[in-house]
Amino acid sequence: MSEVKEKEALFSKNNRKLLTNPLDSDNPITVQVLGICSALAITVKLEPAIVMSLSVLFVLGAGNVIISLMRNIIPSRIRIIVQLVVVAALVILVDQVLKAYLFDVSKQLSVFVGLIITNCIVMGRFEAFALGNTPWKSFLDGVGNSAGYGMILIIVSFFRELFGSGALFGQQIIPESFYEAGYVNNGMMLLPPMALIVVGIVIWVQRVRNTSLVEAN
Amino acid sequence: MKFLRDALDGIKPNFISGGKWEKWNPVFETFETFLFTPDHVTTSGSHIRDGVDMKRLMTVVVLALFPALFFGMYNIGYFHFEQLVAIGQLPSYTFMEAFLFGLWKMLPIIIVSYGVGLGIEFIFAMFYGHSIHEGYFVTGMLIPLIVPVDLPLWMLAVAIVFGVVIGKEIFGGTGMNILNPALVVRAFLFFAYPTFMSGDKVWVAGASEIDGMSGATILGQLGSGAEAVVAQSYSVMDMFIGLIPGSIGETSTLAILMGAVVLLLAGVASWRIMLSGVIGAGIMSALFLLWGGALTDASALIGLKPLMDFGFNHLLVGGFAFGLVFMATDPVSATQTNTGKWIYGFLIGFLSILLRVLNGFPEAVMLVILLLNVFAPTIDHYVVQASVKRRNKRVEDRIKKALSA
């Protein structure tokens, strides 16, 4: 027993917090307002949003571990360039895999896979967390943050695809009889500004639920 | 009146704090203050409280909208029956028939507008425990006047939910909105359901169902190069009186001017915004008249020539008058300083015509007012800062003078 106490359990309370905090009270998109650009661009449909979330999950999870492993040997003056090399290598890996196995989605995501390199969330977590923590914690932190990012992406793209195209995963959901009765897809849902508004509504709902996020005036 | 007062007093205890239906207090309060002047009095200090509360103010604006509303009703019927006569489905019609047809078309739109909008206001008032905001009395009347007559009602309802919640409630309700909610509703409709907000089938009642009926707006026709048709069908007088296709209440400059007089006499709207808006639009139109020929010689811009040659008629069409009188002057979303109002109004006029001609947006007035709504606080900020600087300098100069003397 005493030995276990010395070493922190894999899923201790603190470690679990690393995973769950980014889902709500420290969400990268709705609280830290990072990675907004890609959230607006690739949430028109559910499928690319999920692929994008998984890509970021891989890049951030693996990248955090790699940076954390190297944290004691990276000279601090050139740490940004080292981080860039790591994230660029991982993104190229993801990009090639997508091109090989999911070509259609890869085309829809276009430059945004490449732009994961500049996604503020990735660099932010490298700088703020992986450089100062052990690999396992960094891994949890990376997974947690990309899950928080992906969660918002999926929520937003769900509503945008449902009301903008009347479909989910490309399958028509709203029945044909609705269209015959005069229902029309909402064209504004397909435009990026609406993604911003949907993110705004998510933030609103989140703050009604979680009042600790509301800033005092 | 006495029995109404007694009836209200009789049920009032149920609604005040601790009563049976205290949750419904906002609803009760709305109806009470709608029927009777509120009895709030100042209890301390030397404030003077005017009996005219916001509800009375809003009533003035709604009254000012009536000429445009009634003309809009007639215009709906006028175009519907004119076209039926033209394609030979109807021998003739009377003025009254046209008006009643328009009334029949307008009623559902007005009912949906007030029903949905006030419903949301009630929900928010009960949720946050404040009294119902009066702002929607005006917004609810503005919205039916700026949509095409054949707009499906469910679309209107969706847009109103969006406009009232996103345009107003999330900022804190009436008095806190940075955008004009009625324009948010229209902008939402324009981007979400473009096929129902433009083209030549939506502006005349029944055009989408009956073959042979159509009517593009003047700006739409000019944009597509049909300037000869416009010149043939509509005289400048038609444009001024409002016998042109368009959104329901925005066609008649004459009726809107009547409303403007009411607003100005009551002191509700700012004459500075209206005047500077007209000046701005006039200058831009004049510039296009002046330089239109030279600009359109370059072949890429040749399609814009009809719009440029339209000249000062721009001030009579495309909802310019309606936007300037009823939308731009909204005291909440407009600038607050007097200098700011001149700048704000001028830019609305100037940019509306610019965007309308060069971008080919017939809806330019709506988009520009929304844009300037966003910039209004910035304009005010710089106006106030300039004033502070000027005053500081004056004080400095005096001190220097006093020291040197």
Strand percentage of chain B: under 5%
Largest interface summary: A-B, 11 and 13 residues
**CA radius of gyration of chain A:** 19 Å
Distance linking N and C termini of chain A: 49 Å
Q: Helicity range of the residues of chain A?
A: 55-70%
Mean pLDDT of chain B: 85
* Topology, number of strands of chain A: 2
Number of domains of chain A: 1
Number of domains of chain B: 1
User: What coarse outline of chain B follows from CA principal-axis ratios?
Assistant: flat
Order of helices and strands of chain B: HHHHHHHHHHHHHHHH
Explain the overall architecture.
- The complex is a heterodimer of chains A (217) and B (405).
- Chain A contains eleven helices and two strands, in the order αααααααααββαα.
- By secondary structure, chain A is mostly helical.
- Chain A has one domain (28-201).
- A two-stranded antiparallel sheet of chain A has the order 1-2.
- The longest helix of chain A has 31 residues, at 135-165.
- Chain B has 405 residues and is mostly helical.
- Chain B has one domain.
- Chain B is built from 16 helices and no strands.
- In chain B, helix 11 (253-266) runs parallel beside helix 14 (320-327) and helix 15 (338-358) runs antiparallel to helix 16 (364-404).
- The radius of gyration of chain B is 24 Å and the shape is flat.
- The mean pLDDT of chain B is 85.
- The A-B interface holds A 182-184, 186-189, 191, 197, 200, 204 and B 152, 154-155, 158, 166, 170, 188, 191-196.
